[in-house]
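Protocol step 4 of 5: obtain the predicted structure for the target chain.
Materials: sequence only (see below). No template structures provided, no constraints applied. The aim of this step is simply to have a reference model before the mutagenesis design in step 5. Sequence pasted as it appears in the construct record:
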Amino acid sequence: MLVIAGVVGGAIWGALLARRRKGNRLDMLQYATGFGIAFGLLAFFASVIFLRILA
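Step 4 output (structure tokens):
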């Protein structure tokens, strides 16, 4: 669940960042994809560490 939230949140943040930098639709798509992957991986590792601490 945390990973999905990271992917969606990163994609939204990336698209907004590209829009703020006056990018076109493909720029927003590229930023959203990159940020989504990065935040998804970050959330994945955070959830693995969190589960290791609890278990």
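Step 4 remarks: Helices lie at 2-20, 25-54. The chain has a mean pLDDT of 97.
Proceed to step 5.
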